[in-house]
Amino acid sequence: MKEIIYFSKSQSVFILDQTLLPFKVKYVESKNYKSIIKLIKKLSIRGAPAIGVAGSFAAYLAIKDLKSKSKINLIKDVTKRLNEIGSSRPTAVNLMWSMKRFHNLLLSNSTKDHIDLTNLFLKEAKYIFNHEKKVSTLISKIGSSIFFKNCKVITHCNTGSLATTGPGTALGVIKIANKRYKGIQVFATETRPLMQGSRLTVWECEQNNIDCTLITDSMVSHVIKENQINLVIVGADRVAINGDIANKIGTYQLAIACNYHKIPFYVAAPLSTFDFNSKNGEDIVIEQRSSDEVTKIMGYQISKAKKIANPAFDVTPRELVSGIITEKGIIKNPNKKIISKLKDYCC
Ligand code: MRU
To answer: What residues have CB less than 8 Å from 339, skipping those under 6 apart?
Structure first.
């Protein structure tokens, strides 16, 4: 597979439209930042690290197009656009993390002219792309140490090459473990309502010769008990400073089931997913998405419900997390004392 996002010689950004997978592989061209915002909002590109990377290329297109009359206006206009990009999806903190990097870059180079600033933005977008690739490779290697021969694992949502620019976070760990140990069996939840598990994770597992069984979200407790699952590993959209984690809706119930059955529940996430401004899970904004995603399946109306809730993420309290696998190592029993020390490493 080609990269999920790439920058072309014609100065536009091409993004793999994940809403069409696994049936169609199609790249969409973006010539301006608004088009990337639309793709982020409709989940054509999704997964916390990938959203941060897409936002970075949007930042480059945002400054490139501007026709501001003065330097002061340029700084004001770019800042406004960065805020607009940063708010296109509210939970995955990687997007805010990358926009903050662009804002700092802008302020520390405020004397430079428009062309120089535009070139700096492109360099930064490429840096963030490569950085996320490097850290997801590290996470995958480090995390594979929790696996063993014949290990049975449940994963939720999609956390592979489609969600990062490298092998992935949780699914990246599984990919390396599958190369290191024989008999790895994966159970992938379908991940209602947008089916990132059944559409994307199953597809990535097939491409990587991973033994994968698709299950619905409501089967997890039963499968843990009946199939003697050894561990669960998921990604994260935001990690609070006390170790609470926000991830795809359905993660919390999975963690509760692990706790009841006394099996480890691991989270794999780069430091760009850590939010040192969120004290705990209560500070994390949960994205509420359109009710159509619940009442329709692939555009087909399946319910006449009038009252619908569609939170896209939930928060798992730190007490239920056995460890967070990062590019700096595994944080066992995460807590404020250990996580706050990581702030210095966070690029
Ligand atoms: O709504 P999505 O598909 O962007 O949600 C993705 C997830 O919840 C992933 O688990 C998370 O971003 C980690 S991806 C490495």
So the answer is: 239, 241, 242, 243, 274, 331
Instruction: Evaluate: CB of 250 within 6 angstroms of ligand 1.
Output: no
Q: What is the pLDDT of residue 1?
A: 67
Q: Residue 241: helix, strand or coil by DSSP?
A: coil
Residue 230 has pLDDT above 70, yes or no: yes
Name which of 239, 235, 278, 231 is nearest 139 in CA terms. 235
Cα(188)–Cα(211) distance, integer angstroms: 10
Is the Cα dihedral 14, 58, 251, 338 positive or negative? positive
pLDDT at 215: 98
Is 273 touching ligand 1 by the criterion CB < 6 Å? no
Instruction: At 263, list the tokens.
Output: 């099996």
Going from the N-terminus, what domains does the chain have, and what CATH number goes with each?
5-137 (1.20.120.420), 142-345 (3.40.50.10470)
Nearest CA, atom 10, ligand 1: 235
Count of CA atoms in the C-beta half-sphere (13 A) of 48: 34
Backbone angles phi, psi at 345, to 5 degrees: -85, -20
**Residue type present at position 48:** A
Q: At 179, give phi and psi (nearest 5°).
A: -80, -30
pLDDT in tens, 284-317: 999 999 999 999 987 899 999 999 999 999 999 9
| Catalytic residue (choose from 17, 77, 237, 275) | 237
Task: Judge whether 280 and 240 are in contact, CB under 8 Å.
Answer: yes
CA distances for 52 relative to 93, 235, 273, angstroms:
8, 15, 10
Q: Which of 7, 30, 11, 40 is nearest to 127 (CA)?
A: 7
Instruction: Say what the pTM is.
Output: 0.96
Phi and psi torsions of 300, nearest 5°:
-95, 120
Active site residue 283: no
3-state secondary structure of 298: coil
Tell me if residue 31 falls in helix, strand or coil. coil
